[in-house]
Amino acid sequence: MLKVVSLLKRREDMSLDEFRKWALEEHPPLGKKLPGMRHYRMSVVLEDGPDLPYHAVSEMWFDDNEARLAAFGADDGKAAGADAVAHCSSRFHLLTEEKVLIE
Question: What CATH number did the domain enclosing 69 receive?
């Protein structure tokens, strides 16, 4: 299974509280619509700091890369991506294969 880990940095004009609300309440309804996504998690930092390179981590699981490409190519995927672009100053995506070491 393919796992997409996205590192998200908030826009500078947004407070951490505003970003947290967006990441945990406003954006997830869009993200949940991605076709073929198996799991979806969002984590936001508890405290802000001037040296933080990122403020949130999004994790999404797909059966394979073809499923990921189809999801983000669909209208719902494009809408979720546009929403993220509108609220983040930077995003970095890692395509990974998760190995559970302790359950």
Answer: 3.30.70.100
SS3 13: coil
Are 44 and 20 a contacting pair, CB within 8 Å? yes
Nearest to 34 by CA among 59, 9, 55: 59
Tell me the pLDDT tens digit for each residue of 84-103. Answer: 999 999 999 999 998 989 99
Structure tokens at 59: 């994790």
Evaluate whether residue 101 is within a structural domain: no
**Total domains in the fold of the chain:** 1
Q: Which residues pair with 4 in a beta bridge?
A: 60, 95
What's the predicted TM-score (pTM) here? Answer: 0.92
What amino acid occupies position 65?
A: N
Is position 102 within any domain? Answer: no
Looking at residue 23, the DSSP 8-state letter turns out to be I
Compute how many other C-beta atoms are within 10 angstroms of the C-beta atom of residue 5.
Answer: 15
Distance of alpha carbon 3 from alpha carbon 37, whole angstroms: 10
